[in-house]
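the two lines:
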Amino acid sequence: MSFTDFDIYALGNLSYLRFVGLRNYLRLLEDPLFWTSVKNTFYFVLAGGPLSVAVSLSAALLLNTKLIKFKGLFRVTYFLPVVTTLVAVAVIWRFIYHPRFGIINYVLGLIGLTPIDWLGDPAFSMPALILMAVWKNFGYNMIIFIAGLQNIPEDLYEAADIEGASAWQQFWSITIPQLAPTTLFISVITMIGYFQLFAEPYVMTQGGPLSSTLSVVLYMYQEGFRWWNIGYSTSIAFMLFLLILIGTVIQFRLQKDTE
Amino acid sequence: MKNVKKIILYTVVVLLAVITFLPFLWMISASFMHPGESSAYPPRLFPSDFTLMHYKDLFTRLNLTTYLLNSLVISLGVTFFSLFLNSMAGYAFAKYRFAGKKKIFSLLLSSMIIPGQVTMLPVFLLLKSLGLINTYWAIIIPGMASIFGIFLIRQFAMGIPDSLIEAAKIDGAGDTEVYLRIILPLCRPILLTLGIFTFMGTWNDFLWPLIVMTDSSKYTMPVALANLMGEHVQDTELMMAGSVLTILPVVLVFLALQKYYIKGIMMGSVKG
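prediction for all of em together
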């Protein structure tokens, strides 16, 4: 389908359908909006992905220490955003980010900072989406990290204690290497999920301001289901697949190199 | 020293919990406020005067009952059909011997990396040519079988001893009977896990319902909420009430069955 000029006329009558070869892809390469959407998606994946993994790991480490009680309660609380509907969450966060009445700007005001127009300023719109996405997702990866942490044999730490290794040293030379397979898995699924960014910008910014939050999937949706350029939209979807595939391969390579 | 450490740890843990929970608390509390009250400086955390008017508004004027029912029927429908089909397929992949089994299965697994968006347009056109757009089937049919589900059930069913199945066959049970009377009951825990995943996933899904449900009487809750957002962007309190009602069912299901849900995440991650 990505090799045809499938559009609203073809939707009504299939005989209007024409084979256009690679023309959709060539058009795509020259389409500045497509490149903007790719750039924004990469921004979201490269900044949001590692941040999300780091927050999940920290939360998992926190809940894995023996000093903390009520672990179950905290775990459920941290997990709650994961199960909730993304659209509803986006609706709530739109008001949290409200330039005048939002809680975030209120807190910023308390510590003496000037309010930020989170969703209206192209420089802050993407960080705002990233912050919300991390808040929503970290619980999921946290659960997987906790499972990974519990699989690390206790005697490794005991031996390190006897040798006099500090907590920091133990973290870097036991926890991180032992968690490597878990981390790879989490990085890959987080990356794949983040590449598919859609509902957040759809509900909160409609891709704006100035296309600063236009993601690849949102662009695909707009081309395909708002303007009915179905052939063109399919080629965008296929490019998304290629991006995800390349990203996954790179992650596996990186993992191999560090081993 | 240990006590200081403990206090610091608790502070961080509680702070994180507050950050996670505050948006929900604010949502619930704002949904009971009078119009305009949530837009105040400094922000108010609790309503000065408790009102149910927004909930009443949603149910009477804004057809919320329809959307809730749509979401419920679709989510339950997808869950039912997908448990039925995935359990049969998973069982077949686990216990039957047939030509090309391994190849088909690894083909299925490798196709999991293809993002859903790639197949969205072709599936949409297919459903359109079948005249199913704007019907519940447009969501139920594509959701009926999932590779993840087949995989989950296959892993579980492989652990069922062959001797049980053989014993039943010697006693004269047919394939259908073995499936219904032995496999399904034994797979109960994994079916429950998969069921919660499917129900929540379908309830929360946004892009697909947005595409195939163009008639407003067929909207699911998330689509209706996003649509409401477009029309009532100024009515913060109303939007919050809508959000509460969208989130509530999934949160209740999660809280009731969280053990199975969390087990599912672990299974998917360890074996995926």
